[in-house]
Amino acid sequence: MIDVKETIAMCINFIEANIFNKISLDDVAMHCKISKYHLHRMFKSLTGEAIMDYVQSRKLSASINDLIHTRMRVIDIALNCGFDYEQSYIRAFRKKFGHTPQKVRTGQLSLRITEKLNINDIYAVNNSAIYKPFFVFRQKLCLVGTRHKIMSKSGDRAANLLGRDFFYNHREKIANAVNPEVYFGYTDWSNEGYIYYVPSVQVRDLSKVPPGMAGVEIPAHKYVVFRFVGFFRPDDINGRQVGRLLVHMYSKWIYSSGFTFADTFRFELIDSSLSKDNYCELDIYQPITELNKSL
Questions:
Q1: Higher confidence at residue 10 or residue 237?
Q2: Rounded-to-integer distance, Cα 168 and Cα 186, Å
Q3: Mutual orientation of helices 4-17 and 25-32 as an angle, nearest 10°?
């Protein structure tokens, strides 16, 4: 079993210890005792940034100290940061900061730099984790699926079973699916004591809802999205485990963020084309609004 948080911590600490050495993805993966494919997927899914892009950003940010506080030649700073050529360093520096190293050295500029990733921003339970959320605006969304009333106490387990049944046995009945490989799990908690859960796929419109199924029209919203990453099959997602991670992120982020819930629903999204036997991503979309706009 992969401990996601421990693996990321090993990765970050190795990068920091070698910030002025030339390192590759193979080097980091070997140190973490994980395949470079899995390390890349894990890091990018959680942080939204490729691991080697992060490495380069950290190197470039660390080089600013030498630019400002020493008289080292630019070529020596470049070599010191693991770049093979001075021009490679200058191009990368300008791409990240919008200015050449020489301009930064001589000018009065403010730069947005990349600091060491804070491992405490990652909340993990065994072989799954959630990182800081990101924001998405989505236009109106139409879903079609099977609608189920679930008592709150049995919600997690029941939703898992219903989702698998829909995905493998019923989604092919929906003729106008936008992408049948993308699963939506729509949860409506507007009623006390129970929820309505709709395992579903996105459709172009609600003109062709199959008999026995239900359509849901979701208005345009701004969402905060929590990305859950697990090293197991999507079928093995543990609803209670996701719930623990989600409660943590709600308490750590939403309740102190200046936002509040904009509606009494949320949905989860799984793109099965990204999933493997030992990897899955689940995005949880929570509609939000700024607190002062809800008053």
A1: 10
A2: 17
A3: 130
Are 264 and 295 in contact by the 8 Å Cβ rule? The answer is no
Strand, helix or coil at 209?
A: coil
Q: Which are the contacts of 99, defined by CB distance < 8 A and separation ≥ 6?
A: 93, 107, 109, 111
pTM, 2 dp = 0.74
What are 11's two structure tokens? Answer: 């990765």
CA dist 163 → 4, 188, 218, 237 (Å): 25, 15, 19, 11
d(CA 11, CA 15): 6
Cα–Cα distance for residue pair 184/15, rounded to 1 Å: 37
Residues near 222 by beta carbon (within 8 Å), at least 6 away in sequence: 135, 136, 137, 262, 287, 288, 289
DSSP 154: G
End-to-end CA separation in angstroms for the chain: 46
Query: What is the rounded CA–CA span in Å between residue 279 and residue 271?
Result: 12
What does the pLDDT average to over 149-170?
84
CA-to-CA distance for 41 and 163, rounded, in angstroms? 25
Type of residue numbered 245: L
Angle at 266 between CA 169 and CA 209, to 5 degrees: 40
